[in-house]
């Protein structure tokens, strides 16, 4: 990262940082962004990096490294969630540029983005640095001018990142201008600290407490120079040390203001420049026409015949059905965890964009979506199965249809992870509890043989799946027993 007070190299243990998180604090101009840039450049190529950039300062990383710049102003919240899921799946290093959004829009975007990163399936829990600049915007200590709903969702996403993100491979690195403006439950989860120059007593006191310094020693924080930070934490040092941050390869688009010479023109020359008309000046507009009487306006409106608006092209019933089938397939392939109402609105928008009018109500939509997610392309011949599932909660229809399809085709029994996705969760435990509930209703019968393979029967139809291990990542029951006996 730079050099310490004795001129020795000061480094950060990257693997320890992934497990313990980092908090950077300093007033504007203290060098926070320079510190974050040094950290990102030094760890580029070693770990996936996800940068949340409110001011667009870090987009220059894509010029020197393989970071993908995402302009949030050009995306919807649903698209932001889909992009975040792909980021985790493909381990892409990205910069989320929020520069074109208002504060409330930034908070909603970050909540959707972090929520999708957090809800990624377990097989995509790769280690990643999640760097959040100006974290006090997204995790405010008190309510501000934004709506309560936007503040709650943003604060909840930041809390998940810092409190529960470690188990999912997400290592939060947050930077703030003032500790007093940052929510305490977010700041308290960091174990590593880099404290830069600050002047307010309340911020110096909190910084001293985090560094384990006495209150009378807090004055040293006010005397730090630009680019100098007090560091403490298991990834840096077990005792507070002073670090001068080193140089960086890339630069932000914005720079600190510098003094430049004033123009040398005299008073008269400056007046001519300001008040004299130029060659490119636009001619003043003509005076407005005299006002028109109300009677004349009414007569003009009554006499005017408007050109008819041409009718939009209407798709045939078969074409509209083909559009809906393709949209259902797209939504089913995404396997999102959004609320049903949001998915329904997304379905309507996609159909209208392709010229199809949607006549389905919410119940019919849920049935067809459940069929699509269960892998059933043609719903003909499944009315009896859907009628049998009427006694189940609506969210269990898709996993029940998935079991029915596998049993009807004699395919292997679906895994817990597959049933969990159809159930709208990532928890295998919830999927197993759902199976127990359906079995208590008498709709299915589950059987597990001695090798640990599960098969499911639908007694009303006489269909049975082929035996399969519920979770391939876990060894069969008999193999686990044999391993325990060998260990003894």
TrEMBL record:
Organism from which the protein derives: Sphingosinicella rhizophila
Keyword Cell membrane: no
Span of domain Helicase HerA central: 4-70
Matching PANTHER family: HELICASE HERA CENTRAL DOMAIN-CONTAINING PROTEIN, HELICASE MJ1565-RELATED
One Pfam family of this chain: DUF87
Keyword Metal-binding: no
Keywords from the UniProt entry: ATP-binding, Nucleotide-binding
Listed GO MF terms: ATP binding
Protein name: ATP-binding protein
SUPFAM superfamilies associated with the record: P-loop containing nucleoside triphosphate hydrolases
Lineage: Bacteria, Pseudomonadati, Pseudomonadota, Alphaproteobacteria, Sphingomonadales
InterPro entries per the UniProt record, alphabetical: ATPase_Atu1862_pred, HerA-like, HerA_central, P-loop_NTPase
């Amino acid at each position: 990262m730079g050099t310490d007070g004795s001129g020795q190299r000061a480094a950060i243990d990257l693997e320890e940082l992934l497990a313990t998180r980092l908090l950077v604090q300093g007033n504007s101009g203290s060098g926070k962004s320079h510190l974050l840039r040094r950290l990102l450049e030094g760890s580029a190529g070693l770990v996936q990096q996800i940068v949340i950039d409110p001011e667009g300062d870090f987009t220059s990383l894509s010029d020197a490294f393989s970071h993908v710049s995402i302009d949030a102003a050009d995306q919807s919240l649903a698209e932001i969630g889909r992009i975040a899921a792909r980021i985790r799946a493909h381990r892409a290093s990205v910069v989320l540029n929020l520069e074109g959004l208002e504060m409330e829009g930034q908070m909603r975007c970050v909540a959707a983005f972090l929520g999708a990163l957090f809800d990624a399936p377990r097989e995509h829990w790769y280690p990643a640095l999640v760097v959040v600049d100006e974290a006090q915007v997204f995790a405010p200590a008190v309510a501000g001018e934004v709506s309560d709903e936007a503040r709650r969702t943003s604060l909840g996403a930041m809390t998940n990142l810092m409190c529960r993100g470690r188990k999912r491979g997400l290592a939060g690195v947050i930077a703030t201008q003032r500790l007093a403006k940052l929510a305490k439950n977010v700041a308290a989860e960091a174990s590593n600290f880099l404290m830069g120059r600050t002047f307010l007593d309340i911020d110096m006191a909190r910084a001293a407490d985090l560094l384990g310094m006495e209150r009378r020693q807090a004055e040293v924080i006010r005397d730090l120079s630009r680019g100098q930070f007090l560091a403490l934490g298991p990834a840096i040092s077990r005792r507070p040390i002073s670090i001068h941050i080193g140089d960086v390869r890339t630069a932000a688009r914005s720079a600190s203001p510098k003094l430049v010479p004033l123009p040398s023109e005299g008073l008269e020359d400056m007046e001519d420049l300001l008040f004299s008309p130029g060659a490119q000046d636009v001619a003043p507009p003509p005076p407005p026409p005299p006002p028109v009487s109300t009677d004349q306006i009414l007569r003009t409106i009554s006499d005017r015949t408007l050109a008819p608006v041409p009718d939009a092209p209407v798709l045939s019933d078969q074409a509209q059905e083909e559009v809906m089938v393709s949209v259902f397939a797209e939504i089913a392939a995404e396997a999102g965890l959004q609320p049903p109402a949001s998915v329904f609105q997304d379905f309507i928008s996609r159909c209208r964009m392709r010229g199809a009018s949607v006549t389905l109500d919410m119940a019919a939509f849920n049935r067809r979506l459940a069929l699509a997610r269960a892998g059933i392309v043609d719903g003909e011949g499944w009315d009896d199965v859907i009628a049998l599932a009427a006694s189940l909660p609506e969210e269990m229809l898709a996993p029940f249809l998935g079991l029915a399809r596998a049993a009807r085709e004699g395919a292997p029994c679906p895994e817990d992870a597959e049933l969990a996705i159809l159930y709208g969760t990532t928890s295998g435990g919830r999927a197993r509890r759902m199976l127990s509930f359906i079995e208590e209703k008498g709709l299915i019968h589950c059987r597990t043989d001695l090798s640990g393979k599960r098969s499911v029967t639908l007694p009303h139809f006489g269909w049975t799946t082929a035996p399969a291990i519920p979770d391939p990542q876990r060894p069969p029951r008999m193999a686990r027993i044999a391993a325990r006996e060998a260990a003894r």
